[in-house]
From TrEMBL:
Keywords: Transferase. This is Glutathione S-transferase. Residues 3-82 form the GST N-terminal domain. It comes from Reinekea blandensis MED297. GO terms for molecular function: transferase activity. InterPro entries: Glutathione-S-Trfase_C_sf, Glutathione_S-Trfase, Glutathione_S-Trfase_N, Thioredoxin-like_sf. PANTHER family: GLUTATHIONE S-TRANSFERASE GSTA, GLUTATHIONE S-TRANSFERASE-RELATED. The keyword Transferase applies. The keyword Acyltransferase does not apply. CDD domains: GST_N_family (cd00570). It comes from the Bacteria. The lineage of its organism: Bacteria, Pseudomonadati, Pseudomonadota, Gammaproteobacteria, Oceanospirillales.
Amino acid sequence: MSETITLHSFGTNDRSGKVRWLANELGLEITEARVKLGEHRQFPYRDLNPFAAIPTVQWRDQTLIESTAICTLLAEAYPERKLVVAPEEPARADYLKWMAICSDTLENRLVETTLASEGIMPPEYKALHERTLQFKLRITLEQMPKQGFIVADRFTLADITLAYSLRLAIGAGLIEFADVAGYLEPLMAREAAQKAEFFSSLKQ
């Protein structure tokens, strides 16, 4: 019998998408707990997540916050699936590098740019990040493979995190789908990604 996580989210297109895709790769059952915009800043949700952020996961009598930390903990709980690159593997440094590029260098700026475009955050955020993102994304596209996986010659959590950043960048008009089609299309074909509706907002 598979384990179950309870996933608190706004929907399929926020950062919970990374957790949802990973959970499907791991064969976990997902109990969806939708949070309305604004409710995340109020109690009782803030009893779960004091930072008033999405997503939050309840799993094995634990309450987990921060999407990258959640995904890392879940993936490491199932080492036989090899969705993380272990410390003893030669590709470990590249794995950590790409996880940091996605979650630290790109993701926060891309999320704020997206929210500004949707009128949820002030429009100044889009202008603030645009020039930096254009530079960072250009380097990302130069460094990433045109086809195949980002590290270790296999699908890992790093591919999920990179796919999320690329999806946001395409949605914000900062890159074209054609720029990354060779990399993204095999990921889009994965059953777990489709079940999670991870790419449902992507305009090709």
